[in-house]
Amino acid sequence: DIQLTQSPSFLSASVGDRVTITCRASQGIDSYLAWCQQKPGKAPKLLIYAASTLQSGVPSRFSGTGSGTEFTLTINSLQPEDFATYYCQQLNTYPYTFGQGTKLEIK
Amino acid sequence: QVQLQESGPGLVKPSETLSLTCSVSGGSVSNSSSYWSWVRQAPGKGLVWIGYIYYTGSTNYNPSLESRISIASDPSKNQFSLKLSSVTAADTAVYYCAREFCNPLTCYMDSWGQGALVTVSS
Question: So what's the pLDDT on residue B9?
Answer without folding.
Answer: 97
